[in-house]
Amino acid sequence: MTITTETTSPAEIRPPAEVRYAAELAALDAWDQERGHERPPGWRLSPRAVRAFVVGSEEIGVRRKFYGDDPLVDRAVVSLMGRQGLMLVGEPGTAKSMLSELLSAAVSGASTLTVQGTAGTTEDHVRYSWNYALLVSEGPSERSLVPSPVCTGMREGRVVRFEEITRCAPEIQDTLVSILSEKQLMVPELGPDARVAARPGFTVIATANLKDRGVHEMSAALKRRFSFETVAPVRDRAFEIELVQHQLEAELGPDSGRPEVPHDVLEVLVTVFQDLRTGSTREGAPVKRPETVMSTAEAVNVAVAASLEARYLGDGTVTAAEVARQIAGVALKGEEEDARRLRHYVDNVVRERARHDARWKAFFTAAEPLWR
Amino acid sequence: MAVSVEVVADAGAAVGAGTSRRADAVWEHAPERLRAAVDAARRLRDERGIHFAPVRHHSPACAVAVRSAIEELRPAAVLIEGPEEFTRLVPDLLHEETRPPVAVLSLGGRTGEDEPEGAGFYPLASFSPEWVALRAGHAVGAELAFVDRPFGERSAAERALDGAAPGGSGGAQPDPFARTLMSERYLAHSEAVAALARRLGCRDHDEVWDQLFEARASAELADWRTVFDDVFAWSALARLDYEEGVLAGDGSLDREARMAARVGETADRLTGGGAGGGAGPVLVVTGAFHTLALVEALSGAPEGAPVRDRQPEGGFGPAVQGEAWLVRYDHERLDGLRGYGAGMPSPGYYERLHTAHLRELGSAQDPVPDGPVGARALVTEVLVDIARGAAERGHAVSLPQVSSAAESAVRLAELRERAFPCRTDLLDAVRSCYVQDDGGVGGPGEPERPLGLAIAEVFGGRSLGDVPPGSASPPLVRDVRERVRAVRLVVDDSVPRTTRLDARRTASHRSKRQVLALLDFIGAGFGRLVSGPDHVSGRGLGLITEEWQYSWTPLVEARLVEMVHLGATLDAVAVARLHEAEARLASTGAGSASVAAAARLVAQTLVIGMGVHLPRIVALLRSTLDTDRDLDSVVSGARQLLGLWQARVELGAEEQASELLDLVSQALATAAYLVSDLGKVRAEDEDAAISTLVGLRALLRDAAAAGGAAAVDAAGSPGTDRGEDGVGSAARTAVGRELARLRDEDGTAPAVAGALLALGFTDGAVVDDVLIKRVRGALAAGADPGTAVRFLGGVMRAAPDLILHTPEMFDAVDDALRALDGDAFLAVLPDLRRAFTWLRPTETHRLAKRVAERTGARVEQVDVRVALSEDDLAQGLAVDHELTAVLRRDGLAHWAATEAQAESVAEFVAETAAGAGAVPTRGEA
Q1: N or C: which end of chain A has fewer CB within 10 A?
Q2: Burial (CB count within 10 angstroms: exposed 0-12, middle 13-18, buried 19+), residue B752
Q3: Which residues from A are below 8 Å from B440, CB to CB?
Q4: CB atoms within 10 A of CB B94
Q5: Cα–Cα distance for residue pair B820/B484, rounded to 1 Å
Q6: Pick from B411, B417, B424: which is nearest to A78 by CB?
Q7: Residue from B438, B446, B894 whose CB has the most chain A CBs within 10 Å, to mutate
Q8: Which chain B residues touch A286 with a CB distance below 8 Å?
Q9: What is residue B654's three-state secondary structure?
């Protein structure tokens, strides 16, 4: 097992944003200096450059990475300048984590100061813990203290990401309350005055899912210390197609000789996801919504899988039939009820569309035996 | 004619950079046509003294610029886009009592007898450039005129386009106010503007406008030349998206032809063809969309040909005179966000913004109340007001939240490169800092939340304008306002109000009710009866107080204006409406007009205090009485008339009292004639026939009771047969005789016969022996079980408790039922069960007890009594709610009972539970 302690190594499946977009960040830095944009204390880029990094700018040659809600990005950038943390809430798969990663990469140049919230997260993960070997031999000292990402972020004046904060127990979440309001972390073990003081640039971006099963409530005290932003699912079909297309290139590489996923196949894929996500077709016919979250991220997974299937198992062209087969496997997490809902969708919506449209016909032919 | 989007985008970027290069950047990239136009505009200014003020309707930025322009130029004439017949209203618009928002209302042409083809509104808010142009132009002594094509000349197709809400129809109810004459769908739908929005990161064309124009500081706006140049470029580019055919089809070119001609005429007259001489320059204030066309048409540019070709040889002649009225308007309808299409969204916010500009620039003529000076200072005020509004509705916002919102708004403005926080920055700041969960602020498409309501209040605004009492508003509107004010109802704002009236005892309440009912009758949409006696529909007659909800919205005035052709006063309109109603009644065809409908009209006439018109309607009613063949209609009509007589004091209809009683007598006589029809009804109509019988009996009883009072009332009017015995005693006798005949005839429908017998017994017209004999006879062994049960059903329906109080009858029924064989019993069982449902639960209990005694069974074995507590009821209701929710979730909402049904079931259950009787469950229902 190799643990990457440095920023990155080339063989990583998914390098952090600051590595993937290093060139864009450098261009933005240059743009800032050229224009003389002011940077808030501790920020690596100006707010305008951060915004451009997320929503793109043709002028600077920066690609759009987040779609559908530019004002939300504005608000998020501004919130990061304020005293409060930023809380991104919304349904699963709405690119909350991606947004948090992009923002921290742009603001601090690092998106890796991350606490990944789970039911097992303890206070040590939020504050600090000890290297017990050193602790036993030397006693509490700077050297034996193991800082948490939060602790490091405070010291270095960087953005700390707290993923899935509502999966932590409320008492662990509340550890953040005093850190966010006092901007310091007491370390009594090192002496009565020992503390880690936050430097400018420190703030917390938390992501949370308030509606999922198995999440905890947030205390009012914690809520007060965050600006809330609700990230909505992508509604625009054209945007979502573009998004899937880009993600697909990012996942499979642009020139690996992989089969193209034609635009009209992507259209079928995205339409299926949007129908199932919203519970009705664009024409207004009702559709039964599956329990599984039909997020854009899942759509990308399906597209990737369909492309791989066509490449290694099929004849090298991706059609709606591959998409149909992969939706069953990738998007539906094996719930019997969901399969029934999909059958309903195939019977009522796809069958009708298949009568006029060859792509839907392919989808239908592949889907029908699969979900009988 | 696609214009490169780049041009606009570059212009936008340059504007956004907040430099003085703004206008230059536009012109550097401008297509040749635009550059030529700007040169032409310069020549028009220098040679003919014509200055153009291209504006966006309801834009405070343009309003400020227009004011500065007028104050600096001191023009001899200010010409404004707006149908030229509005010029007549200028004195009223300038009247000191006129307070915006107001609207000029044009009525469409009328085709014959039809309703007007619809009205067009020309709204003016305090921050509308057109409004400011009028006021400031007047202050410098300029001649003021509207120069657009008359509203009446617009074709139906054009009118249909007016006010087509940006973003599609939405299938909402068409609001008459949607027909604004200041529609701006071009800007909303222009591809160039949409591209600019994407480029600038703005969500829609409104935000683009904010970004480019409203975000300028007061002093920048006072530099009107730059502002107008930029507005001109901005909208000219949008205009180039449109083909000539589109502009011709919607009347734009025709309108521009008229405007260009009027501008030319005025300039020639005032400046004598040279800028140097003459009275002074001419300022032309129009929607920026038209400026390009006006410049090209006036300058003789080849592109102006389509417009010039539409001008007649000898000019348009003198300005057209037409009907137009000044009415009050309100912010709610001005709000583009609410789909009225009248221009800018958030009028409440823009009014504050405009006032803040005025405070900074100083304004001699329009004193403004104290408040934030300059747009930057406005931020805190708006945020505090929203916080307060949210707190009032239960969404607490702390002081730190307000201050962080203010900070956030300023930072957002910086990020978006605006001089100060604009509308969307404020909204975003509120969203960021006041919301503490994932529910959003609420609003259109989302559930209503306190914060959303507070935002709507501050941004939407609540202002209602005022118009002078003079001639500008149609006489009908004035008359109605006076009438409404005279009875002390509030017409000074559009806030909905509730008033409780006790018309029986208080004369002033009576007149209030009369005005409310009158306006309701003519369809003014002013008030509506929430609860209380409704004499027209016959509901709630037992109630003493009535409750009305009313509000004097601009819509009321608009509706009234649409009725001006019916009459000049409220009474005249009401009379016209009465005539319409009479005509409708009469035209239903000879012989088919119903007494009930005519009686309703009588009720309507009395309720609205139009008793003087009663004779005509009474005559109609009398003739109807001769022709109506439906006893039920006659009976219910007569009961309504009697009810009106009983309510004569509260209706103020004492004078008509004797007339009403006459009608009742006549109706009774008609009823006597029609009673025999009841004997011939078919089995399935028996229920309705018995209902009629019960109604008739009630009518007879009430008519008899009305006797004493009537004798006193009508002592002086001989000739009618009433007196000590009550109303229409002769007719009542006749009815009684007919009823008796029907009762004793062999061929009478069995249920009707049974009901008549039971009623006769209850009233003492049938003695015990006869009743028992008839019952035994009808139920005797040889009788057809079906007929027997129908007879029994009639008895039970008319007098359910008879079987409890008359042991012989109980015996007779008991014997008859025992005598039935199994099959026959099963055959009649459904009807039989139904017959017994007319008993109240306690009666059923008593009957069961008696049956138990008779059969020797224990009471508990046959008892259907169910003891229910309130807890059971609550539980039942909870289960019911849950079940309904489940059905809804599964898309089976139509399976569940409707709200009304559920309520009535709940009420019924509550009543029965109180009486501790048997309770039907939903399952049975």
Answers
A1: N
A2: buried
A3: 230
A4: 15
A5: 70
A6: B411
A7: B438
A8: 891
A9: helix
If one counts every other C-beta atom within 10 angstroms of the C-beta of residue B75, the result is 27
Write the residue in A51, A211, A224 that is nearest to B415 by C-beta: A51
Of A97, A84, A73, give the one whose Cα is nearest residue A167: A97
CA B826 from chain center: how many Å?
55
Residue B9 structure tokens: 């985008």
Q: Contacts of residue B415 in chain A, CB cutoff 8 Å?
A: 47-48, 51, 74, 77-78
Q: What is the mean pLDDT of residues B659-677?
A: 84
Q: What is the ipTM of this complex?
A: 0.79
Ordered by start, the domain boundaries in chain A are: 17-121+147-230, 237-370
The Cα B812–Cα B829 span in angstroms is 17
Minimal C-alpha gap between A362 and chain B (Å):
31
Predicted TM-score (pTM) of this structure? 0.66
B424 contacts A71? CB cut-off 8 A: yes
Distances (CA, A) of B454 to B339, B394, B459: 19, 11, 8
User: How close A230 gets to chain B, by Cα (Å)?
Assistant: 5
B376/chain A closest Cα distance in angstroms: 18
Give phi and psi for B678, each to the nearest 5.
Answer: -65, -30
**Residues of B (414-433) whose Cβ lies below 8 Å from A:** 414-417, 424, 428-429, 431-433
Q: What is the pLDDT along chain A (372 residues), one digit of tens a residue?
A: 455 555 545 566 778 889 989 999 999 999 999 998 889 999 999 999 999 999 888 888 888 888 778 889 999 999 999 888 999 988 776 778 889 999 999 999 989 999 988 888 888 889 999 999 999 998 888 899 999 999 999 999 999 999 989 888 888 988 899 899 889 999 998 888 889 999 999 999 999 887 666 678 888 888 888 888 888 877 778 778 877 887 787 777 655 566 778 888 888 888 888 888 877 777 767 777 777 777 787 888 888 888 888 888 877 788 888 888 888 776 666 667 777 778 778 877 788 788 888 888 888 888 877 765
**B16-25 contact pairs (CB < 8 A, 24+):** B16/B200, B16/B211, B16/B212, B16/B417, B17/B417, B18/B417, B18/B419, B20/B226, B22/B226, B22/B230, B23/B226, B23/B229, B23/B230, B23/B233
Residue B792: both structure tokens together: 């029994």
Contacts of B416 in chain A (CB under 8 A): 74
Within 8 A of B433 by CB-CB distance, chain A residues are: 227
**Tokens 């960040």 found at:** A25
Give the contacts of B3 (CB within 8 A, at least 6 positions apart): B31, B192, B237, B240, B241
Which residues are CB-neighbours of B587 under 8 A, at least 6 positions away? none
Range of lowest pLDDT (A178-192, B340-354, B784-798, B812-826): B340-354
Q: For the residues B583-608, what does the mean pLDDT come to?
A: 78
Residue of A nearest to B435 (CA): A228
Verify whether the Cβ–Cβ distance A227 to B424 is below 8 Å. Answer: no
Rg of the Cα atoms in chain B = 38
For residue B339, the distance in angstroms to the closest alpha carbon of chain A comes to 22
The CATH number that domain A17-121+147-230 falls under is: 3.40.50.300
Hey, of A81, A222, A228, A229, which one would you mutate to test binding to chain B, going by the most B CBs within 10 A of its CB? A228
Report in angstroms the alpha-carbon separations of B525 from A356, B581, B742: 50, 18, 49
User: How far away is chain B from the Cα of A48, in angstroms, using its nearest Cα?
Assistant: 6
Q: Where are the strands (E) in B203-293, listed by range? A: 282-287
pLDDT tier, B916 (very low <50, low <70, confident <90, very high otherwise): very low
pLDDT tens digits for range B416-460: 888 889 888 999 999 888 887 766 666 555 566 788 888 888 888
Main-chain dihedrals φ then ψ at residue A160, nearest 5 degrees: -105, 135
Asked if B891 has any chain A CB less than 8 Å from its own CB, the reply is yes
